[in-house]
Amino acid sequence: MDYANDETAPAFQRIADRNGKWGYRWVPLVSDENFTHCSLDVLMLRPGKAGGLIVDTDIDNRLKTLFDALQIPTSQSQLPETPASDEDPFFVLLEKDSLISSVSVTTDRLLARARFTRNDFPDSLTLSADQSANRDYVVLIISVAIHATKTTMGNLHLIG
Questions:
Q1: pLDDT at 116
Q2: pLDDT of residue 154
Q3: Which residues neighbour 50 within 8 Å (Cβ) at sequence distance 6 or greater?
Q4: Residue at 132 is within a domain
Q5: Angle at the Cα of 132 (from 92 to 140), degrees rounded to 5?
Q6: CA torsion, points 68, 70, 71, 74, in degrees to nearest 10?
Q7: 135-151 pLDDT per residue, tens
Q8: What domain range includes position 66?
Q9: Who's near 126: CB < 8 A, 6+ residues apart?
Q10: What are phi and psi of 38, to 5 degrees?
């Protein structure tokens, strides 16, 4: 169904129709259309010795990979042929990564392989022995602040 011009449809369905490509319908939270941008505060936890921001890794490439993962893909080759049933619409943080206005990165040591497991929440932070030994494996904790660049009725809730 085409929701793009249906004023009775939920807003996210109209946004998804306007941002459809490659068989996917995207709903970015931060977009030019909403006059929003965001700042990211990233805590990077990694196995190995404690140290500075750059320890045997290329922080620039890691951050670019993160930014790419947070936006609507720029190439069809980044996607499977068709979306899964629970990927319509597909919610993403960013319409494009140029809407990131600032980034703060803090690195620290990932100390434990295991963590407390909640039955009602997927345990995505428990590391296997292989992951703990892999210096390229990191856990990211990302805080996002969304800001309006122009006040509109659609983003009035962000002012305050």
A1: 46
A2: 78
A3: 108, 109
A4: yes
A5: 25
A6: 30
A7: 667 788 999 999 999 98
A8: 11-158
A9: 113, 114, 115, 117
A10: -145, 160
Q: Could you tell me which residue, 4 or 13, shows the higher pLDDT? A: 13
Q: Does residue 125 form part of some domain?
A: yes
Residue type, 18: R
Contact in structure between 28 and 93 (CB atoms under 8 Å): yes
Residue with tokens 């390229």: 136
Does residue 26 lie in a domain region? yes
Secondary structure (3-state) at 70: helix
Q: How many domains does the chain have?
A: 1
Give the chain's end-to-end CA distance (angstroms, integer): 37
The overall average pLDDT reported for the chain is 80
Q: Residue 126: what pLDDT?
A: 58
Listed residue (100, 101, 80, 99) closest to 90, CA to CA: 80
Residues 138 and 62 sit within 8 Å (Cβ to Cβ): yes
Instruction: Give φ, ψ of 44 to 5 degrees.
Output: -105, 115
Q: Is residue 86 part of a domain?
A: yes
